[in-house]
Amino acid sequence: MKRLSIALILVVIVTLTAAWFGTLQAQAPQRGGATAAPANAAPAEPTPRMPDGKPDLSGVWWGGADVGPRLPRGARGPTFQSLYQPWAADKAKTLSDKDDPTLKCIPVAFGTLNVSMYNVGAVAQIVQNSKFVVMLSETFHGFQLIPTDGRPHREDIPPAYRGDSVGRWEGDVFVVDTKNFTDNTWMSAEGRVSFHSDELHVVERYHRINKNTLEIEARVEDPKVLTGPWIVPKQTLVLAPFDQIMALNCSGTETQAAIGIK
How many C-beta neighbours within 10 Å does residue 251 have? Predict the structure, then answer.
């Protein structure tokens, strides 16, 4: 069997998603993200707010188009891997796409497209109430429950694939602090070697600047593996023209067979 890349498999997933969305997807901008607004476009609608006055982050968020094949290439700055300590860089050379944990339906610790809530995919949904912000990943049907009531990190739970998160508001910016990761995931998928340690610590800042735009910034630290913090390039997402994600479950069988893993 001719070898297939993990990227090709994810492209198939995104293609099926596009078919499901039908005409709604056709109304979105073309591949590569949202297009510039025309000069006579109406002003952006204001950020929706919760009853307590905090911004409401709820909605389905994506890059503005079919972005399945688009991967971060590091042209805008350092990548996680470029900050590896010498021993980690040497270890990375011994690994390949066959070692990617996502082949066994294990999620990534961060996000393949540099957006944590995307996980392995390219679409995510946020559901918010007075006590929690819930981030739902379409691919692998993953989720993060982020309390916003001031509680600290839990000390009585084992490490998790996606860590343990707590949230707080700094003005209109929602700050998510995540730690207590396992060390058996990668930061991203599709054969992009990006292992980390159990000291991984991620701080993200979510800012809904208007009804249709969400900006995300992140700082990643891992003192066991990196020479310094990784400042993730700012990501700008747009509100999708649909209000619900779909479940894209993972069996792992076809993916592993495609690249010759028994």
Answer: 8
Which candidate, 252, 243, 238, 205, places its Cα nearest to that of 9?
252
Beta bridge partners of 216: 206, 235
40 domain-assigned: no
Per-residue tokens: 94 = 């011994």
In which domain, by residue range, is 119 found?
A: 6-31+46-258
- Amino acid 42: pLDDT: 73
How far is residue 246's CA from residue 230's CA, in Å, rounded to a whole number? 31
**pTM, entire model:** 0.81
For residues 18 and 65, what is the distance between their CA atoms, to the nearest angstrom? 9
Structural domains counted in the chain: 1
Q: What is the CA radius of gyration of the chain?
A: 18
C-alpha of 259 from chain center: 24
What CATH number does residue 143 fall under?
A: 2.40.128.20
